[in-house]
Design brief:
It is a single chain. The chain is of the alpha/beta class and 511 residues long. It folds into two domains: 3-246, Rossmann fold; 265-338 and 456-511, P-loop containing nucleotide triphosphate hydrolases (Rossmann fold, 3-Layer(aba) Sandwich). The protein has 19 helices and 22 strands. Strands 6-9-10-3-11-12 form a six-stranded mixed sheet, with helices on both faces. It has a six-stranded mixed sheet with strand order 18-19-20-15-21-22, sandwiched between helices.
Length: 511
């Protein structure tokens, strides 16, 4: 077989795939194929069925009907281990590493090299093999480093290294760049290019159009659990892909910026300090204002948000709400002060995924539904949950659906509903559209602007610069734990980058 034939040969063919969950027909005669040596992007709105289809290929779910072929042969994949034996590995959007183990131990878990007749793990060999994989990835990382000491980006690289250790022929990546900065994305793309050159087929699930254009060979679009079309990535306009995803044309109008110079301050922070992560940060956000808190990865944006919310202790600084100092030592103090926080890590800090939608929505407002003797008003909770399911277009069969069964974007909407029900006058949204498709993003943008028009003060943190520039009335820019300046709404990306890469000798302060 020639090299060209090998590169273009089909690794995977999925046809007429059906899958149902209680109350949800997730896939309806869906199809997909993957060739050796290509990056095939799989796109669609949240709930379109992308992750479900790939979890069937990876053995996480079992199909109800349809056929899967690997290298032309029909297969019946029942478990993830069977998928791995066929050379298929999935890297989930929510990483599945064991945080208390080292990088090497995570990569070879269950397959560790042994000594003393198999009685002991050969740690030296384990670390040596891991070092070889890291070297092939051009990755400088200590195999002995505990995973909980690594950044999200490095954890992502450990997941990829694990897939390489399995000698995978098919690698499925679900939103792999959600927590990466531009430099880390470039490193990831270089690794993917080397995998392509070696004949590995990569399934790339992402909502970021610029990435798809950079890295994908083909794009398959799904909508409402069904196959829509497969098109070449390089010659298909972005607008055409978006139209296939949402079934309509989306507007991209610039949000008007109101004059809020006379509006009172809702929240002020003065001289916030916490080790090297927060170095004398001061800023304010007015009632009715959307303040973007922006910066490159590691700038300290999330650290500031968590400190304001009481999730992390401060070394120094003052927080004022409506002009009055408040003491926030824990999240409950922040909630009492009228501050709500939507964390970037929704599964760990925003939801109890084993609980249903109704209880997650009501979680931050239980006192509202508490009757005599502490008995909860279930009817009130149900009505509130259904109101936000309708308002936010949350795709769920009912308010009693377990939250873990929702797509990532719909889980994000449940967290938003939780804080909207609480009616906090100050809301901090950390990566509010992470893992959310273009159609749902437009809905979130409208929602944030509607909340601001009601007089709420909103802080938005986002790694997507165009999103910050589009949404924000003002933009507070950070670099290495310090505030380097405040930009007006409508500022250019060049203005942002100038401040985001500036290393100030003194603390900047803005009202």
């Amino acid at each position: 077989m020639s090299e060209l034939t090998t590169i273009m040969s089909e690794l995977v063919t999925m046809t007429s795939i059906d899958k149902s969950f209680p109350g949800v027909h997730a896939l309806k005669t869906a199809r997909f194929d993957l060739r050796a040596g290509e990056v095939h992007a799989l796109m669609g709105e949240n709930g379109a069925g992308k992750s479900t289809l790939m979890k069937i290929l990876a053995g996480v779910y079992r199909l109800d009907r349809g056929e899967v072929r690997v290298s032309g042969k029909p297969v019946n994949i029942q478990t993830p281990r069977q998928a791995q034996e066929l050379g298929i590995t999935i890297i989930h959007q929510e990483l599945s590493l064991m945080r208390h183990l080292t990088a090497a131990q995570n990569i070879f878990i269950g397959r560790e090299p042994r000594k003393m007749r198999g009685l002991l793990v050969d740690e030296k060999m384990l670390n040596a093999r891991t070092s070889e994989i890291f070297a092939s990835m051009h990755l400088k990382l200590d195999p002995r480093a505990p995973v909980d000491s690594l950044t999200i980006a490095k954890q992502q690289m450990v997941e990829i290294a694990k897939a390489l250790s399995l000698k995978s022929r098919v690698l499925i990546m679900d939103e792999p760049t959600a927590a990466l900065n531009e430099l880390e994305i470039n490193e990831l793309f270089a690794i993917i290019a080397r995998l392509k050159a070696s004949g590995v087929g990569v399934v790339y699930i992402s909502h970021k159009m610029d990435e798809i254009k950079r890295i994908a060979d083909r794009v398959t679009v799904m909508r409402d659990g069904e196959y829509v079309n497969t098109v070449p990535a390089d010659t298909t306009p972005i607008d055409a892909i978006i139209s296939m995803m949402v079934g309509r044309i989306l507007g991209n109008e610039q949000v008007s910026i109101p004059d809020l110079s006379a509006a009172p301050m809702a929240l002020e922070v003065k001289g916030l300090r916490r080790g090297k992560a927060i170095r004398g940060v001061s800023f304010g956000v007015r009632k009715g204002e959307i303040l973007g808190l922006a910066g490159l990865m590691g700038a300290g944006r999330t650290e500031v948000a968590r400190a304001i919310f009481g999730a992390d202790p401060l070394d120094a600084g003052e927080i004022l709400v409506d002009g009055k100092p408040v003491r926030i030592g824990a999240p409950k103090d922040a909630v009492q002060a009228g501050i709500g926080y939507l964390s970037e890590d929704r599964k760990h800090f925003g939801l109890i995924t084993a609980m249903d939608v109704r209880n997650n929505v009501a979680m931050a407002s239980l006192e509202r539904f508490a009757g005599r003797a502490g008995v909860l008003n279930e009817d009130g909770m149900r009505d509130a949950a259904r109101r936000f399911i309708h308002q936010l277009a949350i795709k769920t069969p009912s308010d009693q659906q377990e939250t873990r069964l929702l797509s990532g974007g719909n889980q994000q909407k449940v967290v938003i509903a939780k804080w909207l029900l609480r009616e906090c006058p100050i809301l901090i949204f950390d990566e509010p559209t992470r893992g959310i498709d273009v159609g749902a993003k437009a809905e979130i943008y409208k929602l944030l602007n509607a909340l601001a028009s009601q007089g709420r003060a909103i802080i938005v943190i986002s790694s997507e610069l165009p999103e910050v520039l589009r949404l924000s009335h003002r933009i507070a820019v950070m670099c290495e734990g310090r505030l380097t300046g405040v930009l007006p709404g409508g500022a250019s990306q060049e203005d942002f980058m100038r401040l985001a890469t500036q290393r100030p000798s003194a603390v900047s302060e803005a009202a």
